[in-house]
Amino acid sequence: MATTIEVSFYNSFWLKTIAKSSGGGWVARWPNGYPYNTGSKALPLAGGGTLADFPGGGTILLDYNWFVEESRIRGGYNNTQVDLGVKAYIVAEEQIQQHRFNSMIYSGIYNSRTGINQTNQFSTAKDIIKSLDPAHGSIQKLYAENTNMTIFQQSKVSSALIDKDAIYSAEGSPVQTTSNIVIGQIQPYLGEYGISENPESFAVYGYQKYFADKDRGVVLRLSRDGITEISQYGMLDYFRENLKNINNKNLWQILAGNTTATDPSDSTIVNVTTTDISKMLSGMQLIVDNEFSGYVLSITPNGSNGGNVTIDRQTNIIAGQEVIFQAIAPGKLLGSYDIHNKNYVLSLQQTPQYQDNENYSTLTFDEMINGWIGFYSYKPSQLFSVNNNFYTFQYSNLWQHYSNAVNVNTFYNVDGGSNITFIFNQDSSINKVFQTVNYEGDSGWQVDYFVSEPTGYDFSNNNWEQFNDQIQDVKSYYEGEYYEGTIKYYSGFNRKENKYYANLINTSTAAPGEVIFGESMSGIKGRFATVKFSTDTTTNPGNQKELWSVGTKVNYIR
After folding, report:
1. DSSP-H helix ranges across 75-195
2. Residue 498 domain-assigned (yes or no)
3. How far apart are CA 51 and CA 43, in angstroms?
4. pLDDT higher than 50, residue 362
5. Which of 5, 174, 283, 313 has its CA 20 to 30 A from that of 79?
6. Of the candidates 300, 328, 356, which is a domain's last residue?
């Protein structure tokens, strides 16, 4: 069998000793063919040391080398001289792993009917790799539908033809042709949009696809007319300011005071006292005096605010010493399509659910009105739709939404209420007095605040301040009910012909130069006002309360 031998000198031949087993002893074969039986004798090795008393069997190469320099083959007279000859300059193959973040590769065919399964074959002799522009970042999401595939990079969205290619006529219109390639021509969509590093924001319904581009601060819809920024429908500022807070490498830290090793003989067990013991996870790092001291292997809670934590290694910890457990807790943009309500639901989470239930917002987009219709009070760890039902996960618990088995506005067995905030802004350039507030709908709605727009800054009490008019809260029809003797009165909303009315009682403080203020005047002054309605907790609890329209009576100040 031919082999390639590297030599140290030009026109040199390499000879080397070998040792083989013979009858239990080792025999060293030298170039001249005379054996040397080592027996129990020591055989010196090049570079120091000896080789003696080998066990029987096996083969070993000894570190003895000879180089014979000869310019002609076999050393014969006038024989062919050894020279460099013809050299083939080729690139040496590198059998190492490569990470091609902008490329796709596909395997051989699979046919269940004929028993052909080549899914583990990736022949380099075939054109099975398709690459995209690396300037647009890595491929984050692939979605196949019909005979096309949508490719989401960090900064670009493209469409790839499957099992076909495209040629163009003289007029520039594409004509599809069949092809034997799997991934055909790649056609980018117009616009410099991508999915950033949040493929979890992707959702699809029908021919519409929704996703978020955190790097550009937008939420997008991909449909037949291309890519559209749906975040600009009344929510441009909101997404611009909040998407940038979704960090993919947030640092999650838990401080543990009153810490000590429970057993000095076992330096891997640490006793911790912290209110966040339930949020501690395996794999977190232990930081002592700003230095890494090991990884958390397991947690055993002991009571409500403490427990034993096993570490793979640690330094000496003094009783009462403050240590830090930390981990990378990336934020998420969880998206899904609510097939029950036909809405796109997006949850902006700065931290995962297992860390805390704060620093998040879950909101929904409705195609019927082409706008964002509201916020939800739940923070899911996953969400999806199946058979016209919408489900979410909290930790490992599955929750079905819109179920009649629980009260309205109940998520994960926590009862909540509904609220809506809006602005009265008719004739916004004219100063006016808002005197009353009214609404049409079900009983059980209350006003949390009714506030006019702020004034310009005034220097007051050694500070720059803004002033506005505001009212005390307006109670719901039932909660505002009271009696004087046998006569019933209402301190909040009163019902007349199935419509609810309430007067606005001013509770604001005096602004600079203001003569009449507070309860000395009726209503509040301003060009526009911000109002928040919410459901109470006593009127028909657990059932639906509708709100159809809201109005106010104003007097214009000319």
Report:
1. none
2. yes
3. 5
4. yes
5. 5
6. 328
- 183-212 pLDDT, tens digit each: 888 889 999 999 999 999 999 999 999 999
Query: Do 316 and 427 fall into the same domain?
Result: no
Task: Place 33 in a pLDDT band, splitting at 50, 70 and 90.
Answer: very low
Question: 313 and 437, same structural domain?
Answer: no
Within a domain: residue 188? no
Q: Give the Cβ contact number of residue 113 at 10 Å.
A: 5
Residue 73 φ then ψ, to 5°: -60, 130
Q: Considering the entire predicted model, what is its pTM?
A: 0.71
Domain boundary among 28, 45, 75: 75
Distance between CA atoms of residues 477 and 485, nearest Å:
19
Interacting residues of 89 by C-beta distance below 8 A, sequence separation 6+: none
Number of structural domains (the chain) is: 3
How large is the average pLDDT for residues 283-309?
83
Euclidean distance between CA atoms 501 and 490, whole angstroms = 10
Range of the domain at 58: 12-75
Does 356 fall in a domain? no
DSSP class per residue in 313-344: ------TTEEEEEEEE---EEEEEEETTTTEE
At 532, the pLDDT band (50, 70, 90 cuts) reads very high
CB 281 within 8 A of CB 249: no
Q: What is the mean pLDDT of the chain?
A: 81
Residue 21 tokens, joined: 């087993």
